[in-house]
Design a protein that fits this description.
Elongation Factor Tu (Ef-tu), domain 3; six-stranded mixed beta sheet; eight-stranded antiparallel beta sheet; 7 helices; 34% strand; alpha+beta
Length: 416
């Protein structure tokens, strides 16, 4: 039995203690080596700091260490007996919105840090809006630095009420609140004796036990074909498999399926994996499907159910986060990657720009620069098989690429 993988992103404004929290999780869950701890201890002493600065475990870039801030997305890996974890440590500054979007786009859980002394501030709201936009299923508000407000319950309750009032406008369904002190370790891995009034779980317990099984869409079958497998081997001369990653639904041997774009139907003869044949496949498994009929399928095609298919369209409405110095061009042409398809597109219309601090739609200013989020309409050179992003984060997302430089210039979410 392999343990389940949970991806979570962390966000907070400068000095909210994000790096300290991650350092504390790694240290208290015994996920760092003794020599790493010793190196951090030495560095802390050299800087004249009291105690061991666990933030130094995570601020990997020299520029980050010098400025004391997180600039790029840093991925950390750790495991407990219950689960494996990937942490996307994302920057909090508005000029790094694109980095936050990148780091959080695949997360099951978003941890948003709030400084107990400052409460809900503009950056808290912006991080929450982006998490809601990215449809991260679970949100945890870590009210940090409780040690600096004497572990007072009323401070925690006030911040919780403030946040809940604001969050009622967001599309977020599962929000938890945990009062912590990353520096002292209260409620991170061990329960805090300083906050007997808090009856919820510690942060690690939450991360180990939050139910993520239903974060994937297991209803709508979606299988984008990545590669056609034709072994050059006499023993397998009639083997023709379609390899890819299940993006939605559950597929079993004998199931009737439909192929897009052709519309032909067939049944699943066999489901192969690197470890041999299996009876059923579901997200996010990588498998090879064999069909009972000899039909022509290639990369970019999709296997779906007869009576349940995505929208087949060339006109898409997108919320796009712009990544590039060069602004998004109205009538501009870009390459687009959607699941396993590469096509080209034209930007037909920039409808509005969103203020990521207030959710306000700016209909006048259509200039979309780096880190801006906007709603646009595009037309593609050939049909794509899409779902709304809120229904399926894989078939509902695209990336825009500058054809001249091959740089990723934007990430888009399909609005349904």
């Amino acid at each position: 039995m392999t343990s389940e993988l949970l991806r979570f992103s962390t966000a907070g404004s400068v000095d909210d203690g994000k790096s300290t929290l991650i350092g504390r999780l790694l240290y208290d869950s015994k996920s760092i080596f003794e020599d790493q701890y010793e190196a951090v201890k030495t560095a802390s002493e050299r800087r004249g700091e009291e105690g061991v600065n666990l933030a130094l475990l995570t601020d990997g870039l020299k520029a980050e260490r010098e400025q004391g801030i997180t600039i790029d997305v840093a991925y950390r890996y750790f495991a407990t007996p219950r689960r494996k974890f990937i942490i996307a440590d994302t920057p909090g500054h508005i000029q790094y919105t694109r980095n936050m979007v990148t780091g959080a786009s695949t997360a099951n859980v978003a941890l948003i840090l709030v400084d107990a002394r400052n409460g809900v501030i503009e950056q808290t709201r912006r991080h929450s809006i982006i998490s809601s936009l990215l449809q991260i299923p679970h949100l945890v508000i870590c009210i940090n630095k409780m040690d600096l407000v004497d572990y007072k319950q009323e401070v925690y309750e006030t911040i919780k009420e403030d946040f809940e009032r604001f969050a009622s406008k967001l599309d977020v369904h599962d929000i938890s609140f945990i009062p912590i002190s990353a520096l002292k370790g209260d409620n991170v891995v061990e329960r805090s004796a300083n906050m007997p009034w808090y009856e919820g779980s510690t942060l690690l317990y939450y991360l180990e036990n939050v139910h993520i099984g239903s974060d994937h869409n297991f209803i709508d079958t979606r299988f984008p074909v990545q590669y056609v497998v034709r072994p050059y081997n006499d023993d397998y001369h009639d083997y023709r498999g379609y390899a890819g990653r299940v993006a939605g639904g559950v597929m079993k041997k004998g199931d009737r399926v439909m192929l897009l774009p052709s519309g032909f139907t067939s049944t699943i003869a066999k489901i192969d994996t690197a470890d041999g044949e299996i009876e059923e496949a579901f997200p996010p498994m990588s498998v090879t499907l064999l069909l009972n009929d000899d039909l022509d399928l290639s990369r970019g095609d999709m296997i779906v159910r007869e009576n349940n298919h995505p929208e087949v369209t060339q006109d898409l409405d997108l919320m796009v986060c712009w990544f590039n110095d060069k602004p998004l061009q109205q009538r501009g042409k870009y390459a687009i990657q959607h699941t396993t398809q590469n096509v080209r597109c034209l930007v037909k219309d920039i409808q509005y720009k969103m203020d990521v601090n207030t959710l306000h739609r700016n209909l006048e200013d259509k200039s979309v620069g780096m880190n801006d989020i906007a709603r646009i309409t595009i037309r593609t050179t050939k049909p794509l098989f899409v779902d709304a992003y809120r229904k399926n984060r894989i078939t509902g997302s695209v990336i825009l690429i500058d054809e001249g430089t091959n740089e990723t210039v934007g990430a888009g979410m399909v609005i349904g």
